[in-house]
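Re: that backbone. C-alpha cells:
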C-alpha cells in the first residue's frame, strides 16, 4: 500500500509543472475553502468576506501569485452550478489573478471531479500539483489526498453519500471531521516522501497548519523550552519579561491540551528522530475565527493567519507575533511563523 502511494507521489513529483522562482517572486497558498451553495450548510460562508477582501485588497495589488491547493469547491455536498452561482465574486477574483497569469489551481479530493469533466472552462489549467524551484531546491505543492489509496471509489461514494443522504438531513462537516487517523497517516507519508527526497512539501487536506513539520502544539513546546533556557542564562535583567512570556505561552498550551480535538493535541513527532523541517500545511480558509495560508516572498516562507477582529482578538496582544491591519477593514494578518528558505533546505540536508 505504502509502496503504491510513493510510486504515485513520485510520478506526480516528476511530471508536474516546474516553475523557477527567485527572491523577487511572491506566492500565497490557500487550500480547503470548501465553497458551497451559500446556505447554512456552507462551511465557507462565515469567512467569505474575509477571503474575498484579502485576495482582492491585499494579495492582488501586491502582485502575488495565488496558488489554490485543493478542496476549493465542495463538490461532495453541492453541485458545481450552485457553487458558481453562490460565489460569483470569488470566482471573479480568481479570474483576475488568472488573467494576469498569476493563478495556479490544484485539485483536491472534494473538487476532484473538476479534473474529470468539463465545467465550461472552469477547470482550464487545473492541475494535480506544482513544483516551485528555488535555486534548484524543489518546493512540491499538492493537496495531500494522494497519500490514501482508491480515491476514485472513495470520492464517488462519499460524493453521492454526502449530497443525497447526509446533506438533506442537515449533517454538516461530514468529511471535514473524517477520521483523524487518516489525517495522521497523510502527514506521516507526506513527511517520509519529503524528507526522503530532501525537498519541501506543502499540503492542505488535513486542515491542520504545519510549519517545518511542526504543529502549533510542537511550536509552543519548543518556544517555552527556549524561553526556559534563556531564563537560565539571564542575569536577572530580563527575568520579568521572560516569565510573562512563558506564562502566556503555557496558558495557550494548556488551552490546546484541554480541547477535545485530537488534531490539536497530537504532537507532530512521527518518530523519535529530530524532525527535518520539510513538511508544511496551509491549514484551511474555513477556520472558526479566520483563515490560514502560506506565503513565499523574498526567499522566505511564512505561515500567516488572517482573522476578523470582531470574532477574534487572540493575536492582538501577543508581542511575539507581528500583526498588520488590512486598511479600512476589521481584518488582520498575523505572521505566525517565518523562516529563510536557504536555511530550511540546509537543515533538511543536515537532518535527512
Ligand atoms: Mn481534502
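Recovered sequence:
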Amino acid at each position: 500500500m505504502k509502496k503504491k502511494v510513493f510510486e504515485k507521489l513520485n510520478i506526480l513529483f516528476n511530471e508536474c509543472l516546474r516553475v523557477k522562482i527567485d527572491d523577487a517572486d511572491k506566492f500565497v497558498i490557500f487550500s480547503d475553502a470548501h465553497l458551497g451553495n451559500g446556505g447554512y450548510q456552507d462551511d465557507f460562508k462565515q469567512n467569505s468576506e474575509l477571503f474575498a477582501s484579502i485576495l482582492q485588497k491585499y494579495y492582488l495589488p501586491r502582485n502575488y501569485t495565488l496558488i489554490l491547493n485543493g478542496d476549493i469547491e465542495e463538490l461532495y455536498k453541492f453541485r458545481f452550478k450552485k457553487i458558481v452561482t453562490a460565489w460569483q465574486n470569488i470566482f471573479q477574483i480568481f479570474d483576475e489573478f488568472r488573467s494576469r497569469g498569476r493563478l495556479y489551481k490544484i485539485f483536491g479530493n472534494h473538487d476532484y471531479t473538476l479534473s474529470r469533466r468539463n465545467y465550461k472552462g472552469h477547470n482550464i489549467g487545473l492541475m494535480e500539483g506544482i513544483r516551485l524551484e528555488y535555486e534548484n531546491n524543489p518546493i512540491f505543492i499538492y493537496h495531500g489526498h494522494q497519500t490514501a489509496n482508491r480515491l476514485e471509489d472513495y470520492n464517488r461514494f462519499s460524493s453521492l453519500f454526502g449530497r443525497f443522504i447526509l446533506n438533506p438531513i442537515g449533517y454538516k462537516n461530514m468529511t471535514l471531521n473524517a477520521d483523524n487517523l487518516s489525517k495522521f497517516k497523510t502527514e506521516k507519508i507526506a513527511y517520509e516522501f519529503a524528507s526522503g527526497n530532501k525537498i519541501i512539501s506543502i499540503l492542505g487536506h488535513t486542515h491542520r497548519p504545519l510549519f517545518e513539520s511542526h504543529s502549533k502544539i510542537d511550536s509552543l513546546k519548543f518556544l517555552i523550552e527556549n524561553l526556559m533556557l534563556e531564563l537560565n542564562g539571564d542575569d536577572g535583567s530580563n527575568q520579568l519579561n521572560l516569565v510573562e512570556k512563558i506564562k502566556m505561552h503555557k496558558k495557550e498550551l494548556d488551552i490546546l491540551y484541554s480541547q477535545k480535538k485530537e488534531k490539536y493535541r497530537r504532537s507532530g513527532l512521527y518518530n523519535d528522530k529530530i524532525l527535518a523541517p520539510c513538511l508544511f500545511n496551509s491549514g484551511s480558509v474555513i477556520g472558526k475565527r479566520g483563515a490560514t495560508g502560506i506565503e513565499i516572498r523574498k526567499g522566505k516562507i511564512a505561515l500567516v493567519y488572517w482573522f476578523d477582529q470582531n470574532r477574534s482578538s487572540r493575536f492582538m496582544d501577543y508581542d511575539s507575533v507581528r500583526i498588520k491591519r488590512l486598511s479600512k477593514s476589521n481584518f488582520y494578518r498575523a505572521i505566525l511563523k517565518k523562516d529563510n528558505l536557504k536555511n530550511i533546505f540546509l537543515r533538511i540536508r543536515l537532518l535527512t
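The longest helix spans residues 239-258. Residues 70-71, 108-110, 143, 145, 205 surround manganese (II) ion (CB under 6 Å).
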